[in-house]
Amino acid sequence: QVHLVESGGGLVQAGGSLRLSCAASGLAFRNYAFGWFRQAPGLEREFVSTVTWNGGNTGYSDSVKGRFFIARDNAVNMVWLQMNNLKPEDTAVYYCAASNSLGVVTTDRLYTYWGQGTQVTVSS
After folding, report:
1. How buried is residue 109: exposed, middle or buried, by Cβ count under 10 Å (0-12/13-18/19+)?
2. Per-residue confidence band for 113, with pLDDT thresholds at 50, 70 and 90
């Protein structure tokens, strides 16, 4: 059974930083691209960032580019999202997801497995 467990969310002031973690189990980790998505109240889920199976390529939404950074370690089955210079509009539930599609995967329907999410709240 596949499990993706996010952690690291919380309450932070604008301009602050958080690092989200995603621990994966039950799947061949290095065969999957991983992504982060977020969903704010009343809005649709949106793409945030993704990393290919070997970490060689990454992708970011325009709204987080230059502030957020994704990384993975295939030796420990972990994915991280470093979030810097956080803004109130970054407030959302953040989800980790796994996709067996090749390349930089930005579409949520191409992701097979999803975590339960972690809340990030940025105060102004």
Report:
1. exposed
2. very high
d(CA 43, CA 59): 22
Instruction: Render pLDDT for 38-71 as a digit per residue (tens, 0 to 9).
Output: 999 999 999 999 999 999 999 999 999 999 999 9
Query: What is the spatial order of strands in the sheet that 18-25 belongs to?
Result: 3-7, 18-25, 78-83, 68-73
Report the distance separating Cα 47 and Cα 111, nearest Å.
11
Residues near 80 by beta carbon (within 8 Å), at least 6 away in sequence: 19, 20, 21, 22, 70, 71, 72
Whole-number Å distance between alpha carbons of 85 and 95: 20
> Residue 60 in contact with residue 93, Cβ under 8 Å?
no
Alpha carbon separation from 82 to 8, 66, 100, 105 (Å, rounded): 10, 11, 23, 19
One-letter amino acid identity for 22? C
